[in-house]
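Following up on my earlier thread - several people asked me to post the actual chain instead of describing it. Fair enough. Here it is, all 482 residues.
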Amino acid sequence: MIIKRSILILAAVMIVALLSPKSAHASPYEGYVYSYWGDAVKSPIAYLPSRTITGQEMGIGPLATPTDMFAAADGNLYILDSGNGRVVVLNSEWKAIRQYQGFDNNGKQDTFNKPEGIFVTEAGHIYVADTENRRVVVLDESGALIREIGAPKSEVLSDKFEYIPRKVIVDKAGRIYVVARGVFDGIIEFDSEGDFTGFIGTNPVQFDPVDLFWKTVSTKEQREKMIRFVPIEFNNVDVDGDGFIFTTTADKQTAVPVKRLNPSGIDVLRINGDWGPVGDLTRNPSAFIDIDVSGNGVYRTLDSTRGRIFTYNEDGSLLYVVGQVGNQRGTFKTPIAIESFGNRIFALDRDLGMITEFTATKFGSLVNEANGLYSAGKHDDAAKIWEQVLRLDANYEMAYVGIGKSMLRRGEYKQAMTYLKLGNDREYYSKALTKYRREYMRENFGTYMTILIAFIVVVVAIRRGLRSRRGGMKQNAVSQGH
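Reply from S.P.:
Thanks for posting it. Predicted structure:
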C-alpha cells in the first residue's frame, strides 16, 4: 500500500513538472549583469529565442556566408547574402518579398562581389558596401541603380590608398559614411552626392611602452623591422536619430571599443561608472563586431568572442545580456550581425546561414519600458516600473538607482539616499546627502539655535554665579584678616 502511494505521488509530481511552464533556467544561456564592483550577478532572462529561419525555409535556397542585415522602419528585414551576391528582403511575417541580385549599369548587367555592409534609408534607397568591387552601390526600391560611389579623390590621400568599403551608413542629411578595410584615418565621409569630404573620428594610437622604449634605442634598420604604431581601425558603424555616429572597434586591448561621435568627430559617449560598454569583464575581453542603435538612447553590441549581445542605455550602463556561442536554439556558431525592431532582436549567423529572433520576456519588457520612461524624463512613471523590476530581481542595481533618482527629484532625500546606496550610485547619493543636510538644517535651525542660545545663557549664568561666589569668598577672607 505504501509503495503504491509513493508511486502515485511520484507520478503526480512528474505530471506537474511536465505541464508547468518552463523556467528561465530552460534557456540555452543565463542572464546576468555586472555589479558596481565588477562582479557578474545572475539576472532574469531578458530575451528568449522565439523563432529561426534559414534560406531554405524562406524558399530562396541556402544563404551563403551572409554578412549583414538591416531592419527598416516599415518592419522589413534586409539580409545581405554575400556569398550569393544578393540582397533578400523579408516582411514582418518572414516571407521573402524581394531579391536584388543584379542591376543595370549603363546598359550592362552588373552584380555584387562579396559585399559586407547594407543600409536602407527612410526613402527606401538601399546602400550596399560592395566590398570586392571597391565601391558603394545605391539602388532604389525597385532595384534600379541610382549611383555608385567609388574611391575618394583628394590630394591629401596617398597614392597607396586602397578603398575597400566594408560598412556604410547614411544620416538624415544624406551624408554617407563608410568604414573601409585598412583605413586608419577614421570613417570616410561623402556628401549626399557621393563626393569625398574628409575623415571623421580617428582612433588614437595604441602602443606598448616596452616596444616604444626599444624603438627609441634601436638603429634605423632595427626600427624598420619593428611593428609600427598605427591607430586602430573601426570595424562597424551605426547612426542614431539625432545624427550621432556609433562605432565599434574589435581590438581587445582598447579601453573604448564603442564611441558616439558628434558631427565634429568628437567622442561624446556617456559613461556612468567605471566600466562602460566593454562587454564581459574577464581576462579574455569581448571583441565587438557589430552595433545596433535602438530608440531611447539604447544601443546593442555583438561580441564575437562568446556570441553575446550586450544592451546598454544612454548612460553606458548594462541593461542585460542575450545569447552565447553554442549548438542549441538561441545560440550561435558565428554571429556576424544584429538588428532590432520594437521588442525584438534579430541575430544573423554567418556559418549557419540562419537568422534568430529574440522576443522580450516580462523582465526584459519592464526594463525596456522603465528605461524608455527614464530617458524621456518621466522619472516618476519610470520609478513605478522599476519597482516591478525589483520584484523579479531584487539585485538589479539600476532599478534602485532609477527609484532613488525619482525620489531625489521629488525632494524625498532621505529615502533617495537609501535606494541610491543600494544601487551603488555614489554621485547621486552625494547629491541626495547634500540636499538632505540642507533640508535638515533648514527645518531644525530654529530648534538648534534655541538650544544654543539657552546653552549660552546657562553658561553665562553659571560663570556669573561662580564669579559672585569667588567675590564673596574674597570679601570674607579680607574681613576675617582685619
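Confidence is low (pLDDT under 50) at residues 1-25, 210-215, 223-230. That should answer part of your original question.
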